[in-house]
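Sorry to interrupt, but I need a hand with the structure work. Leave the record below and I will have a look:
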Amino acid sequence: MNVTITGFMGAGKTTAGRRLARLLRIPFADSDVEIERAHGPIPEIFEREGEAVFRVRESETIARLCEGGPLVLAVGGGAILEPANRAIMRRNGCIVNLAIKPETAYARVAHRAHRPLLGPVPTLEAIRSLMAERSAAYADNDLSISVDSRSPSAIAHIIERWYKRKAATEVPVTK
């Protein structure tokens, strides 16, 4: 069973995901890293080809990664917006959302320039607006964890305990 970790920029998806994968002793993948490996830096994809092309590549990457497994998969903050992505994530495992307050996200990403959807200088207003647009998609999860005051290790341990309980009660599905 895969664990797909979603959440807004700066929520700690990659860091917590790596720790979770070690705890569960299963592979870790980051969809953004895989996209960059195949197509170059994400800001350049946005600039050269636009968000729509990036989203297609993102969906293809998520579908490919989810077909393997089990694995822990961290996906970009906007990946959850596409219902087909959520369906693939859920069909092959579970979705864990790392919930973060706009102020915390701002503090974590304000100094970073590689966030195409936030512009050259991220603002708290832009973060609030983007979070509001994505709120319904982020709410479609199997587990949500507030991460504002939690370390990546604490987050990984919470997911680990939940995952092990869930895996113990799952009935294997024959394909």
Q: What stands out?
A: Residues 2-161 form a domain with the Rossmann fold fold (CATH 3.40.50.300).
